[in-house]
Structure formats: structure tokens, C-alpha cells
Amino acid sequence: MDNAQHIAIVGAGLVGCMLATLLARRGHRVSVFEKRQPPSDSAASGRSTHLVISTRGWRALEAIDAGPEVLPATTPLNGRRIHPADGGDELFQPYGQDGQAIFAIHRNTLNRILVRLCGRTPGVAMHFGRQCVGVDLEKGCIELADAQGEQREVVRADYIFAADGASSKVRELAGADGRIASTRTLEPFGYKEFTMHAPHATALAADAMHAWPRGAVSLFAFPNPDRSFTATLLAPFEGPDSFASLRTREDMARVFAARFPDVDPAPFFGELLGNPVNSLVTVRSAPWTLAGRLALVGDAAHAMVPFLGQGMNAGFEDCMVLVELLERHGDDFQAALGHYETLRKPHGDAVTTMSSAAFDELTRQISEPGFHLRKQLERMLHRLYPERFVPPYQLIAFTHVPYADVLHQIGELDAVTDELLRHADARSEQAATVESLIHSVISRLPRGNHADQTH
């Protein structure tokens, strides 16, 4: 390749490996630097162990031919199974239409696959145990050190990509003079993850994410291929029933008995008490590109809380947009980076906003009858007006409609369902009556501009 460039990528996580593989397959020389050691074969990490792959993520994985290795390690999820606080029958909420599913996978499993694929891609050199300690954009250099801060080296690259996560060192160093503004919002809630091994999870159906929404202290569980479940206990850092007060088996037993009586915590006490409490953070940054040489991707640009399941998918979409811009501009990185932020930042901001809103939905709203009624109305609107109204999560998980367009459509859909709920008690009305009301309300509303759902 005549215009091959040397690219330095800091971060060998999911997004860093994805971008490195895509760029190397275009003929560029890529050096990847990661402060940690290569991911181990151990699945347990106690932190951020579960991800979901939606349509946006699969598009990127298929672009690097990762599907055959990734798919067998996933578990398809058709929806949520809600466990009510009153101990009643669980409620199933589908994610999309019949046959549609998102796919759960262990973060460490996926990272191992992508590191392996990346490392065997011609043109990629991977360097573990090397942390970034300096950035000089004028010279196009990054300074690296080993874990002890010794054995330093300076590497020159034509272009630098920061894929080193929410606490990006590259973003911090490059923006130390104020050229990059970033806000880092730490939520007052944390989470612990633990494993429900198969013998202790026989009552849980393996076709869905299970949720015990109890507000500030909630529980979620994702199935694994071996029929175990990876569970997440959410709680405040401080106050009653906070992680600060959940220090003994008796403390945990009391909280589970009061909030999740159908789950016996005894088999999980070791992990519940021993695993770390992890933080939930939101990061917004601007600009995403600097000096025509540096670009932020994934969490380094737009970290979000995990309740929408789109952090990784959005990061992969960043990578796809970058390579599409390179294709459009004949691998002219200056031109591609000039358009990257303009095209992506509105959608990064939108998915971050939607992820924060999903926190309230998953911990509080989904346990309320009014929420289920609203979702029923959304599905009915979609059935009657399939091109005009699509349930938001269906757009997010099963299409490539840009995130900012989805956020706009959420506002439009909320306005219509609010209007319907004001006109009738849809709980007691016959379906035909509700359909008639829907047609009447829609006929009085102006028709806005809608994104092409096949985009």
C-alpha cells in the first residue's frame, strides 16, 4: 500500500483490538500498547464481566471475520424476565419482534478472541505491560513505560488513537493544556458481580436477562452457555443497605430476604463479600480529535453506564465509521479525522444520554404497572404504524438507525403514548377500542421526519 501509515493505538481492550484489526486489514502498520498483561483464560474477573452484542456490534465483528469464533461463546437473549417485589409471577418483556435476540457474552471471553485475532493479523504488533506516560502531538510521539514506571521508550507514529477507556491516560495527557475538555460523572451507586453456578440457578430461564428491580438496591442476572448466570448486585456506596453496610453474611442475607426472597444468597457469600465494588461512570469529552493526529474512540470519548448495553456496540460503531471515512477519502487520515467527530459525536452524546435514562428504567420503572402498559401501547403503535413508530430498544439493538435519531424518536413516541394515556384507560378497554383511539390520535398529530429504519 503506497500510503500506508504507522498507527499507534493505546489500549488493547475490545475497541482497541477492533480498530487495530480493521486498520491493519487496510494495509496500515499498527502498534498496540496495553498497560495490562494479555487477558487470561480465567472467566472470572469480578468486574464488568458481561456484555451484550447487538446488530451494531455484529456488523463490526463480521467485518473482521470474528463471527465464527464469537457466536459459539454467546447466549441469545430474547428479552427481560422481571421478578416482582410482591413475589408474583415473573413478567416477560421482549427486546424486539419474534426471532430477534441480543447476545450475551463474557467480556473476558470476547477480549481473548479479539486479542488473538488482532495479534495474528499481518501488520499488527501488540505490546503488553506498556503504559502511556507522555504524548507529544507536534512530534507524533508517545512515551511508554513498564508497570514499574521504568524502562521507558518513545514511539513515533503518524496517527494516534486513544482506546484506553473511561479513565483514558492519553486523553488526560493530550488535554493537559486544556485542549480537551472532559467531564467525568461518578454515580452514587456501585455494583458487585458474582456467579450463580448452574446447580443454584435451575429456576431461572436461560432465554433472557433476569431483573429484580428494587430501586437503589437491585439485582440482575445474565445466562452463560454453561447454564450458570453472571449476576450483578447494584447498591449505593453509602447509607442504609449500601455496600458500606453490607459487610457480613448476615447483612447480605437480610437484604436478599427483604428484596430478593426467591434468591438464596448463601452459595454466593464468598463472591458477594469478596469481590470488589465497581464504579459507574459517565464521561463526555470534546473535542474527539486533536492536532489532526489524535482521535478518541470508544469509552475514551464517550463512556456510559451499562444499563442500555451499548457501550461496546457504540465503540465498535466508532471504528466502523472511521474505516468508512478512510474508504471514502482514499485512506487520507487527515480528511477522515476531519469528519469523524462531526459524524460521531452527536450520536455518542445521544447514546450516553439514553444509557443514563435506562438506569431509572431498569431499577424502578420496569416494576411499575404503568411502564408495562406504555410498552404494550408502543408495540401496538408499531403493529398499526410499522414505518412510523418503532419501539426504542428495537431501533437501538436491531437496526443501524443513528443514536441521535433514536433519541428524537423516543421523544416523539413518548408524546403519542402520553396522549393515548390521557384519553383512555387502556388497561380496561378492549383492544379494538384502543386501536380506534390510536387511529384517532395519530390522525390529529403532525407527521415528523423519521429516520430510515433500514439504514
Automatic annotation (TrEMBL):
Residue intervals passing through the bilayer: 6-24
Cofactor field: FAD
Keywords on record: FAD, Flavoprotein, Membrane, Monooxygenase, NADP, Oxidoreductase, Transmembrane, Transmembrane helix
Domain FAD-binding, chain residue ranges per copy: 7-353
Domain of life according to the entry: Bacteria
Protein name: NAD(P)/FAD-dependent oxidoreductase
Biological source species: Pseudoduganella chitinolytica
